[in-house]
Structures are given as structure tokens and as C-alpha cells.
Amino acid sequence: MTHHSESAADLATTENRVTLRGAADLADALPYLLGYHPDDSLVLVALHGPDGRVGGRIRADIPRDPAAWDETADQMAARLVDTQALSGPRPDAAIVYVCQEPPEGVEAREVMERLRPLAQRLRTACGALEVPVYEAIYLAGDRCWSYLCLASGCCSGEGKSLPESGTSPMAAAATYAGIQIRGSLREMGRRLDPLGEPIASCQVGAFDAVAKELFPRMLGGGPDAKVVKGETLRLAERLQSRFRRSTPPAGAGGEESDALDDTLLSSDEAARLALGLQDRGARDVVAEWMEGPEGPPALRLWRALSRRCIGEFAEYGTAPLTLVGWVAWSLGDDAEARVALGRALERDPGYLFARLLHQGCNGGTSPEALRRFLRGQRAARSR
Description:
Blueprint: E1 8-12, E2 17-21, H1 22-34, E3 41-48, E4 53-61, H2 69-87, E5 93-99, H3 108-114, H4 116-128, E6 133-140, E7 143-146, E8 160-161, H5 169-177, H6 185-189, H7 199-219, H8 222-245, H9 254-262, H10 267-276, H11 280-286, H12 295-308, H13 318-330, H14 334-347, H15 352-362, H16 368-382
Parallel strand pairs: 5-6
Antiparallel strand pairs: 1-2, 3-4, 3-5, 6-7, 7-8
Helix pairs in contact: 2-4, 2-15, 7-8, 7-10, 8-10, 8-11, 8-12, 12-13, 13-14, 13-15, 14-15
């Protein structure tokens, strides 16, 4: 399809199906598909079947350097196909979204035109994998433009207005299905941002000291590495119990809850736990705290630990960020899971656990198979 007025996609909710037609409908649906408003984002949405049923979603930051656009486009297209392979048939088509607010004093149409080659590059990358792009949309605020519009004057000038908030069929269906938008990507990601001063300097100093002690023991293998793993797990258990006892006050917002949680970790504890979780075996054991009364305090612990991985030690945040994503997904919060797993993959694109979780969450698969596996692992260890 080359004209956005012909584009259509079906979104199946729990009880009903909504047909989305045209760029404005598709743009309006994006926050409901992701669970948040994307900022400075590229999004690919898979479509299946002749009716364009919505499937998996892939999001990435818009690279500031245009020299990175080719690589980003190729990676996103490949990830879209790989993600769908986990949960069913490969995509029959895709929708491209380019989301970026214009800076002050700049018209949205100028940004749209500047990013047009990036949208085209995404189309080319998808086409190379035999996934045609039915629509490519630039989204800014409450307006959108179709990159595929061929009608004279149709998407020129000020673009098309999105439906008024809460009035679209998509909004009605989402309300009926209990789908909520959690704010913007930037707001959600703020809960995982590294801490600033006065904690930052103390935390870096603790990482320096603990790394000098732990790394020779961990890298040597043998008995010392096993001892460190045991120390890591005992520390994690103590901290998880501490977080369970210190619950945020009823009605506390995310910022208030996080401020409390940041006081529950010392710099030394955070450094020891973050470095100890570089052991994949230790990480897999604590991943078992994923449900029931263990899940929420574990999620708070991993968020707080993620915020402690700063400066030159930021890369050690990959494991706790992945655990944030896993527990959030297991507890039913797909939006937070996508944000956290995306952050983990930004730190280390090759981190296999994060990649598999990201594919599963974005592909619409259930986390129950992994939960069953981890329950079995725990039961076998207790025999």
C-alpha cells in the first residue's frame, strides 16, 4: 500500500477488535501498543495476515549521528523478524513510526523532512527481509505526517490531527481492555537513571574498592569463584528481605518510592551485588524472585541497584536492568519491561538473557514458560 488512506490494521483486545485506518488512527494507537508515549524513538510494528493484525513491536532511540542510521535500521528489521519467530509466523508487513518532538523555534515539518531518509532506510531494511512497509509515519505531539502519502497536499503543511484524547475507537477499546498508558518513555526511564551527587562519588569509590577485592577471586575460577557466588546470593537475600519489610507508604508515587528505596542500599552493598551478579549462575538464582510476595520487593531492589551503576561502572547495570525487565514482565507490566530491557541492551547489545526476554515480551509471548522453568530449577535445588 502506498497511500496512508488505504492502510489498515486490526488490533485484537481481550473481547473485541478495532480496525485502524489511515495515518492518524495508526499514530493514535501507538502509545496503547507500547504502554507509553515514545520520545525520540523509532518503532517497528509487525502486521500479520490479509487484515494487517498487529503483532510484535520493536523500539530504538533515534541515533543522533546520521552515519548510524543504516546500522540501526538493519538491526531493527532483523530484530522484528527474530522476535516474531519466537511466538509464531514471521511478519507479513510492518508499520514504521518516527517519533521526535521539534526543538523550540523549529517547525515539526522541518524535523519530519530531516528524518525522511531514516524512515526510507527502515523501509529498505524491512523490504530486504521480505517485510513490506505498509505505512511510515512521523509523529510529533498531536499531529502526524505520512511518508508514503502521494496525494497532493494531503500531508503537507501542518500534517494531520490525531483524534482528541480519549475519543478514538482505540482509546475506547483500550479502556475496555484495561490497557493503560504510563506516561512518556522519558518519564518511565527516569526511574532507572543513574543517581547523581552526593551518592554518585561514594558509589564510584565503593565500586573501585570492591572490584579490587572481588575480581581476582571471580576471574580465577575454582573455589574462590564459588565462594563469591555464595556471598552474592546471601547478600541478595538479605537485601530482598530488607526491601520487603520497608514498603513505601500507600499512595506513594514512583519518585517517592524510589527515594525510599535508595536509602535501603549502601554503596558497598550495591557494588558487591552488582559485581557479584556478573556471575550468570547467581543472576539466574535471583531471577526466581519473580512472582507472589517476592516479586514487588525484588523489582524495587533491582531498580535501585540499576540506579547505582554509574560512570565507568555503568556496564554492570546490564544484569540488574535485565532483572527489572524480567520481574516487570512476569508481574504483568509489559511497558516497564520493554523500557528496562531496552536499557539493558543499550549497555550490552550482546547480553543473551536480555535479548531473549526482549524478544519474548515484544513478541507477545507469555512469560509462564520461563516461570515454570525457574520454579523447577528452584525445586531441584531444594531437594
